Amino acid sequence: MEWITFLLLAGAYAVLWVKRIRDAVLLIGFQALLLAVLTWQYAWEHHSLHLYAVAVLIVIIKAVVIPWVLLYTLRKIDVKREVERFFSKSSTMLAGLLLILLAHYLASRLEIYSGSTAAQGIDPLAVALSFLLLGVYIMIGQKKAIMQGIGLIVIENGLYLTALVLLGGLQLIVDLGVFFDILVSVIVIGILSYRINSTFESLNTEHLEKLKG
Amino acid sequence: MILVSGEGQVYAWGLFGLIGFPLAAAAASFTVSSVRGTAWTQFGFSLMNAVLATIMLFNIVGREAVSVFDGWIRLDAFAAYTVWLTIVVGGLASLHSIGYIGRELRDGAVTVGRYRQYYAGLHLFVLSMMLIAMMNHIGILWVAVEATTLISALLIAFRNGGAALEAAWKYLIIGGLGIALALFGIILLFAAIPAESVQDQLMWTDFIRRASELNPVLVKVAFLFILVGFGTKAGLAPMHFWLPDAHSQAPSPVSALLSAALLHTALYAVIRIKLIVDLVEPGFSGGLLIVFGLISLAVTVPFFLVQHDLKRLLAYSSVEHMGILALGFGVGGAASFGALLHMFNHAMGKSMLFFSAGSIMQRYHSKRMDRIHGLLRSMPFTGSAFAVGAFAIAGSPPFSLFLSEYTIAAAAFRNGQWMAGVLFLTCVVLIFSGMAYYIAQMLFGSNGHRIESRAEEDGTKAAALAVPLFLLLLFGLYVPPFFRELLNWTIQTLRGVPS
Prior knowledge:
The structure holds two protein chains of two kinds.
Chain A: H1 2-17, H2 21-46, H3 49-77, H4 89-110, H5 124-141, H6 145-167, H7 172-200
Helix pairs in contact in A: 1-2, 1-5, 2-3, 2-6, 3-7, 4-5, 5-6, 6-7
Chain B: E1 4-5, H1 9-31, H2 35-60, E2 66-68, E3 73-75, H3 77-106, H4 112-134, H5 138-156, H6 162-191, H7 204-209, H8 216-233, H9 242-249, H10 252-280, H11 284-305, H12 310-331, H13 334-364, H14 375-378, H15 380-393, H16 400-414, H17 418-443, H18 459-477, H19 481-494
Antiparallel strand pairs in B: 1-2, 2-3
Helix pairs in contact in B: 1-2, 1-4, 2-3, 2-4, 3-4, 3-10, 3-13, 3-18, 4-5, 4-10, 5-6, 5-10, 6-8, 6-9, 8-10, 8-11, 9-10, 9-12, 10-12, 10-13, 11-12, 11-17, 12-13, 12-16, 12-17, 13-15, 13-16, 13-18, 13-19, 15-17, 15-18, 16-17, 16-18
Protein name (chain A): Hydrogenase
Membrane topology (chain A): Multi-pass membrane protein
Subcellular location (chain A): Cell membrane
């Protein structure tokens, strides 16, 4: 399973690098597929029916429906200028690397049981924490409203991974609730991005700085 | 699956009613054909729910908790009290909306379609807030908190302008980030249960029962994340940045719900989990709550003294009061009684203030306080209610907020937390003087003859002001014995003993 955790980490890091928002959305879908494979693996190991169900749900909701909603929004908005960052690309990539290192440090400090793979190289908990930190960084470092939403989804993926490696997943009904919430939040993100774009004729969050004090 | 368990079977069915009425009201918003009919039908359902909630509340005193669905939904005294407060504020907002959004409709500011969406959203928002307090499973509790964000973000963006969109977007992103942190904390809390028994139900009651087996380090780290996460939704500083924007941009009845119900239910989520932490590591969570409470109070003061926007002033006042509540629950003991009473007082006072602010804005077409003068002359009833609400919320006697704040401060001093008590009182006095200055400016003086003193506001808006006005005055002079008993019974729940 080593290679899946590695690909997950690479996938999250690559979101920092993309030029087009569309590619970021595809990366989110790719992450979801990897999470589904990982979940399937856990389900196989623990003979857990509910994890099989969750793996299927991830494919449907996170790998198909959510990217579709985001791509649909992007098509309707017809974004002219693509990804815009507050910092230069090289410093963004460097900061990303530092965050991944920080996540590994934090994971080693947490000293909790995190599956058998912990000893053999890439710690899945460290990858999960990297997702959280990179997600927050995407939300802060990106100017486009919809990219902040993508940062939020990266964080959610990290949370799912944390729950999987620490607890072998949440309970089915909780997972269902969380998936439903994520789906609705992506739809709300889509609606609001669309309205922001039609009000300001741009998705740039620099327009969203009128309210102060 | 045991559908209904607990002593009072009848009350378990009442629980289904509490969930059913808001759903019915939301459905009615789309199905009733006439516009007036829609408004009154949705209010009818809220009224019935408020009556049902009140009956449930006063019957839960002295009883064991009512639970349904194998204990996934569970109503003990603390939960019932929070649900009741939410429903009462929701009912008042639904009543006030008849006049408020009805006028927006007549002015052509909203279309009939949006008008229906508004009512449906309002009741789903109330439902999602109620569910926070009803959920025994901590994971589902999180789902309910997230649901409140999603529904209310659309309500905040209800007026399509740039500022409303900005507020809604900030709220969605900051709130989303906040509760992501809370979910991380909840996962850590689940991980604190010894590995061999993770199959367990992971209900709140399970955690209380098995507190001694929990990994204390993980519980502490988990609580930090949960406090910061749900604290963001509860408007505790320094995570309060979304709050003044959202409260000022939302339609006034929604502002009232955000301030008088949502903040309380988010704080409820923190306190629920605090009760687990208290059994594992006494004193840890209380200290943190006191710190965040004092920061919230201190942060409010400068913003309060230089404010121009009426609704932002009220929003910062909410940050202040959440600080007071966090401080009260953090100090514990008698201060918990004060905090519970303060929840009620703040809910009444703040909904009254946001309702009247809505009416004032519709009359003056501005929320800048320097453009609002002569309120008492141009709007005698709303203006007086506003004045009473403002002095009450600032904590002046004889209103009941004075009583609850006094109880919290006295308990802090009795517990030897002198620093906390002194800081608390200093901030409250500064904020009071700021409030008094602005209020005097708005109430008196000439309105420049721009605003004719027409007939009084329409009946629904006045009624939505009269109920909390009456309760604030009554509870200031005397807290009825059954209410006292109810709060004492709720405190039993706060000791962490599942009843």
